Amino acid sequence: MESLLGKRALVAGSSRGIGQQIAMGLAQVRCNVVVHCRMPGNAEQTLELLEGHEIETSVVTGDLGTDEGVESVIQGVTAGPGHVDILYNNAAIMNEWQPVWEIPKTAWQDTFQVNVFALIAMCNAFAPVMVERGYGRIINLTSGIKDTPQLAPYGVSKAAVDKHTEDLAAELRGTNVLVNALDPGWLRTDMGGPNADHDVTTVLPGVLVPAFLYDHGPSGQRYAAQDFRSDEQHAAA
Ligand SMILES: NC(=O)c1ccc[n+]([C@@H]2O[C@H](COP(=O)([O-])OP(=O)(O)OC[C@H]3O[C@@H](n4cnc5c(N)ncnc54)[C@H](OP(=O)(O)O)[C@@H]3O)[C@@H](O)[C@H]2O)c1
Known about the structure:
Blueprint: E1 8-11, H1 17-28, E2 32-37, H2 44-50, E3 57-61, H3 67-79, E4 86-89, H4 105-133, E5 136-141, H5 152-171, E6 177-183, E7 222-224, H6 231-236
Parallel strand pairs: 1-2, 1-4, 2-3, 4-5, 5-6, 6-7
Helix pairs in contact: 4-5
The protein binds NADP nicotinamide-adenine-dinucleotide phosphate (NAP).
NADP nicotinamide-adenine-dinucleotide phosphate (NAP) binds next to α1.
């Protein structure tokens, strides 16, 4: 396994939930973390959790539901830490539960803006710099959701994420910028709700696996964080 010591990761949507766990896992292996959330105040809890790990932290903000917000995130990195070696496209939204026929077009648009168009813009902004530097790991959070037409905008957006992950991996073949999808499992977060199968902490260490991939390793693959749970986590989850 490669060391992430001294590398820098942007974790989109790391103020809470799975993104916060990713940020903590990266800090534990001494990877510098750029925390992202919508409003500056939302980052405080994550920043507190990252204290004491001897890493550099910074915060970028921006609502990925707007093009201006996406640009704010990209500019925040460029004007701040400068570049990222690892990009976790973790921020996402889920539409309200509704009969599929009644889901308004705006729900499809809003969900695709955050889950797909913002993700594509982030890849477009950061992947070329990774190519120039000869190293990059892009990890796109996907979902195992299926047979849930009431959440179709969310489910279809994640299918688009999977497809874009494969296409981008093909584009970047040979560059050592690896692009993979990561299914965290169904977790008790604000999005997953209280009835989900697993505690949010069970995403570690699995969420880190695609970041730790060796040079010119697998790309265009799908990883499942729950495959890497320890026996203790199995018992607790
Ligand atoms: N939870 C599950 O069971 C589950 C299952 C499969 C896949 N996933 C995927 O895992 C990822 C994380 O899910 P989660 O459960 O941790 O979600 P969550 O608890 O709802 O947290 C969402 C994170 O994304 C950020 N975010 C949401 N909307 C945003 C926007 N418009 N602009 C910028 N940031 C925004 C939030 O920032 P603020 O705090 O600033 O709002 C927050 O940090 C998502 O991609 C999700 O699809 C989750």
